[in-house]
Design a protein that fits this description.
Largest sheet of chain B: 5 strands, antiparallel
Number of helices of chain A: 4
Largest interface: A-B, 33 and 33 residues
Low-confidence stretches of chain B: none
Strand order of the largest sheet of chain A: 1-3-4-5-2
Order of helices and strands of chain A: EHHHHEEEE
Number of domains of chain A: 1
Structural class of chain A: alpha+beta
Strand content of chain B: 25-35%
Structural class of chain B: alpha+beta
Strand order of the largest sheet of chain B: 1-3-4-5-2
Shape of chain A: elongated
Strand content of chain A: 25-35%
Helix content of chain B: 10-25%
Number of domains of chain B: 1
CATH class of chain B: Alpha Beta
CATH superfamily of chain B: Hotdog Thioesterase
Oligomer: heterodimer
Largest sheet of chain A: 5 strands, antiparallel
Distance between the termini of chain B: 5 Å
CATH architecture of chain A: Roll
Mean pLDDT of chain A: 95
Number of strands of chain A: 5
Radius of gyration of chain A: 17 Å
Helix content of chain A: 25-40%
Chain lengths: 140, 146
């Protein structure tokens, strides 16, 4: 079976996921670049980033997108995530702390499965939006 | 502005073989130490019979073909002004070490929003059994227009 963490009987609309946060360093970004295969120098080469007018390198959106998906699998269990859709609303800079959040907005049944729709967000320590999104999760 | 005649354009199929260490490297890059990704015994006892990749590992195998889009001479996108606007993944089946994933990517929409051009790309990934594992939909914004 997929990992069992959340039981559909024990959750309600409005429930919030435990937050996952990370203080982003250049090392996190470089490590993600290697693991994810995105070597656009705007994310990893400080001199290049400054030369094109940016204050510094910034994280690739799918890095915080990856942390957001991890927040979900930590919460609902590995293997239960069916879909997510995220919109990148702001760049993430080294030194910022990202906070990944999720909230159940709908609990229902479809295709013989117990499903939950979640609202997703990544914000920084000031509450500025970095990602807004939604996910669908299947529960046992 | 990007010519709308490119809506529907398909790119060459990409192939990616899932490697155990690469999968673990990705999980480590998001500080994820789930035993489903790392512990062989947990993997063997799971319904998957092996360790599986974290869901967002799809970013690695399903978006491989994006380079073909970014550097397509016909489109001549202004890569310096390109930003990732949205990303959607549908996960239909997990992937595990040894799976050979083939992905077909195509342009599904081209639009203008204010001063920006927006290009929507969809990629469908199948495993070696022909089963769809992931559908990825990405939108890329060319700031200031192409």
């Amino acid at each position: 079976m997929s990992e069992k963490k959340l039981d559909s009987a024990s959750i309600s609309e409005g429930d919030e996921a435990p937050e996952l946060s990370l203080e982003v360093t250049r090392t996190h970004i470089v490590r993600y670049a290697g693991a994810g295969g995105d070597f656009n120098p705007i994310h990893t080469d400080e001199a290049f980033a400054k030369a094109v007018g940016l204050p510094s390198v910034f994280a690739m959106g799918l890095m915080q997108g990856g942390y957001l998906a991890r927040m979900l699998t930590d919460w609902v269990g590995v293997g239960n995530l069916k879909r997510y859709k995220i919109r990148f609303t702001g760049q993430v800079w080294p030194g910022e702390t990202i906070i990944c959040k999720g909230k159940i907005v709908r609990k229902y049944e479809g295709d013989g499965e117990k499903l939950v729709d979640c609202e997703l967000a990544v914000v920084n320590q000031e509450g500025d939006s970095k990602i807004a999104g939604e996910a669908t999760v299947a529960l046992s | 502005m990007i010519d709308h005649k490119f809506i529907g354009k398909e790119y060459p199929v990409t192939e990616y073989e899932i490697g155990r260490e690469k999968m673990k490297e990705y999980a480590s890059a998001i500080n994820d130490s789930s035993p489903y990704y790392f512990d062989r015994e947990v993997g063997k006892k799971s319904e998957y019979g092996d360790n599986i990749a974290p869901p967002n590992f799809a970013a690695v195998y399903s978006l491989l073909g994006c380079a073909n889009l970014f550097f397509d001479p016909e489109l001549a996108l202004n890569f310096a002004m390109l930003v990732h606007g949205e990303q959607e993944f549908e996960w239909l089946r997990p992937v595990k070490p040894g799976d050979v994933i083939t992905t077909t990517g195509k342009i599904v929409d081209i639009a203008e929003k204010g001063n920006n051009d927006v290009i929507s790309y969809e990629a469908e990934s199948k495993n070696q059994d022909g089963d769809v594992v992931t559908v990825a939909r990405a939108t890329f914004v060319i700031r200031g227009g192409n």
